[in-house]
Amino acid sequence: MKIPENLLPKELLSRATLRGKEYAWPLEDIPKVITAARDCNLASVGGQLQFRFPEGGTCECYWIEVDTHKSVSSDVSWAERVALTSETALADFQELQSKWDFISEGRSAFGEEFKKWEVAGGDPSEAMCFVWYVAAQAEAA
Prior knowledge:
single chain; six-stranded antiparallel β-sheet
């Protein structure tokens, strides 16, 4: 099975980290990912906040998520679905940023991992990213 994220522009993919089959980007890139997905005829599925520490630890704040399946019907045409998931994803992602203090949530849930990283001189904001999933029309059929 092909990974639909690989259809995104190479420049944008180069800014992501890949662990397993999940691409994650710095938060400031997520609106660009959503726009690029729309421009590539991909639906934005959504994603979750993660902290990816360089030594390999991944801490996922699964409760801080965007999930367009909850609000965009799969009964619309593919073109409508691409457009609607893009609009919804952008709005939902902006709302998350105004609703949550991402660093505080990560530190509260994963205190030990944060402490190790910070004692070593790391800045949690450098490990903070957002996993983002997209879907191609062939997958959705």
